[in-house]
Design a protein that fits this description.
- With 396 residues, the chain is an alpha/beta fold.
- It is built from 15 helices and eight strands.
- The strands form two sheets. It has a six-stranded parallel β-sheet with strand order 3-2-1-5-4-6.
- Strand 1, helix 7 and strand 2 form a beta-alpha-beta unit.
- Helix 7 packs parallel to helix 13.
- The longest helix is centred in the C-terminal third of the chain and has 36 residues.
- The radius of gyration is 41 Å and the shape is globular.
- The termini are far apart.
- The C terminus is likely disordered.
C-alpha cells in the first residue's frame, strides 16, 4: 500500500510539472503581448510572411531554370490579340518584322509600325488579286499563246526586249558615263527608310536599263552582309543579283575614280549645276531621310574632299514650300533626261508638281494673261460711256 501511494504521488507530480510550465509560457506570452501592444495572431502572421519569403527565395532558382517566353513570342501574341480586337495589324508577320517591333519602345510606335505593315500587306493582296483576275491570253491546243492575226506587224516578244536592254546595259558598263550611288548611309536610316531606299534603287535601275543611252551604275560603299546588301539580295534574289549589269563594291568613290572628276550632288551645296558635263562622274547619296537631317550628304562630300553641286531648282522652278530633296528614282530620271536632251526644263518635269508652282516663265505668262483679262472690261466700259455720251448729245 505504501508503495502504491508513493507511485501515485510521483505520477501526479510528473503530470503537474508540464502543465505548470505550459501555463507559465502562456502567461509570459500574454504579458509580453500586453506590454508591447501586439496581438499574438499578428506575430503568427509575421512569422508566416517571413516563411513565405524564405520559400520564394528557395523556389526562385527552380523558376529561373524554366524557359521563359522570348520577345518574339510575346510580340506575336500581342499582334494576335490586337488582330482579334479589330485593330489594323497584318495577318502574317515575319520574324524580322517581329524583331523590328520588339525594338520599338512605345505603344504608339508599335501601332504605327503594325499599321504600316497592314497597309503594305493589303497592297500586295490587291495586286495579286488584280493579276489573278486579269484575262489570260488565248492559247492553242499545244498550250502556246495564239499569235496575232490579220496584221502586217510582227510581234515584238518581251524576251527580245530584255535582250536588247541587257545589251545596252552591257555596252554602258564598257563605254557609258558612270553614275555613282553612295551607299554609306545605313546608320542614318531606320528599317522602314532602308526598305524605301531599296525600292527607289530598284526603280532607278529599271529606268536606267530602259533608257536609250544608260549610265554605268556604281553602288559604292556597299558593305557585304550589311543592311543594304541584305535587303537588295532579298528583293532581287541571289541569282538575279549576280547577273545584274551594275558595279557593286565596298570601296569609296575616290578609290574608283579620280578625285577631280567626281561631283557630289547634294541639295545643301552652294554651287549650281547649270550645265551637264559628260566628262564628270556624278555621285548621288543613297539615303531616304524622312526627318530631313540637313547637311549629311554635304558633310560626307567634304570628308571625301569632293566638289559639290545642286540641281538648278530655284533657277527654273517657282518653289512653293518644303525641302528640295528628291527621291533616288527622280534623280535618275532628271539626270538621264538632261544627259540625252541637254534641256533642264524638260528634265525638271519629273519634279513632283505638288512641290512647286511651275516654271518661272510659265508663271509670268499666266500673270500677263490675267492682267489682260482684267483690263478688257475697262475698255468695254469706256466704250459704253462714249456711246451714251453720243446718244445724249444727239437727243439734245
Amino acid at each position: 500500500m505504501v508503495f502504491d501511494v508513493m507511485f501515485l504521488r510521483s505520477c501526479s507530480l510528473a503530470v503537474r510539472a508540464p502543465v505548470q510550465t505550459l501555463l507559465r509560457s502562456t502567461v509570459r506570452s500574454i504579458s509580453t503581448s500586453r506590454t508591447t501592444g501586439k496581438d499574438p495572431d499578428e506575430e503568427e502572421k509575421l512569422d508566416l510572411d517571413v516563411w513565405k519569403t524564405v520559400m520564394k527565395t528557395q523556389a526562385l532558382p527552380e523558376s529561373q531554370s524554366d524557359p521563359s517566353p522570348s520577345a518574339l513570342d510575346f510580340n506575336r501574341e500581342l499582334v494576335e490579340m490586337w488582330h482579334q480586337a479589330g485593330k489594323l495589324v497584318p495577318k502574317n508577320i515575319t520574324d524580322e518584322q517581329l524583331q523590328d517591333l520588339a525594338a520599338l519602345t512605345t505603344k504608339s510606335a508599335k501601332k504605327k509600325f503594325l499599321k504600316f505593315l497592314a497597309i503594305k500587306e493589303a497592297h500586295k493582296i490587291s495586286k495579286k488579286e488584280k493579276r489573278e483576275n486579269k484575262p489570260k491570253p488565248e492559247r492553242n491546243a499545244d498550250g502556246e499563246e495564239r499569235e496575232l492575226r490579220n496584221t502586217f506587224l510582227m510581234k515584238f516578244w518581251s524576251g527580245s526586249m530584255d535582250r536588247l536592254q541587257n545589251w545596252r546595259a552591257a555596252q554602258a558598263m564598257r563605254f557609258g558615263q558612270p553614275l555613282v550611288y553612295d551607299m554609306s548611309y545605313e546608320r542614318h536610316m531606320t528599317r522602314r527608310e532602308m526598305e524605301n531606299a531599296v525600292s527607289q534603287l530598284m526603280e532607278t535601275e529599271g529606268f536606267n536599263r530602259r533608257s536609250p543611252d544608260p549610265f554605268h551604275l556604281h553602288f559604292c560603299g556597299l558593305t557585304p552582309g550589311g543592311a543594304y546588301h541584305s535587303e537588295l539580295l532579298k528583293r532581287y534574289g541571289a541569282e538575279t543579283w549576280e547577273r545584274m549589269l551594275i558595279t557593286d563594291t565596298a570601296s569609296q568613290p575616290v578609290d574608283m575614280f579620280r578625285r577631280e572628276d567626281l561631283v557630289y550632288l547634294t541639295a545643301d551645296s552652294h554651287t549650281v549645276l547649270r550645265q551637264f558635263d559628260h566628262r564628270k562622274v556624278y555621285v548621288v547619296g543613297a539615303i531616304v531621310d524622312r526627318s530631313i537631317q540637313s547637311g549629311i550628304s554635304l558633310a560626307n562630300a567634304k570628308r571625301l574632299q569632293l566638289a559639290t553641286a545642286r540641281l538648278p531648282l530655284d533657277e527654273h522652278l517657282d518653289w512653293d514650300s518644303g525641302a528640295k530633296n528628291l527621291t533616288l528614282d527622280q534623280m535618275m530620271r532628271i539626270l538621264s533626261t538632261v544627259k540625252d536632251t541637254g534641256d533642264w526644263k524638260t528634265a525638271l518635269e519629273f519634279v513632283p508638281k505638288r512641290k512647286h508652282c511651275g516654271f518661272h516663265q510659265m508663271r509670268t505668262g499666266k500673270t500677263q494673261s490675267v492682267r489682260n483679262e482684267f483690263a478688257a472690261p475697262k475698255n468695254k466700259t469706256d466704250g459704253h460711256k462714249r456711246e451714251r455720251k453720243t446718244w445724249w448729245e444727239e437727243e439734245g
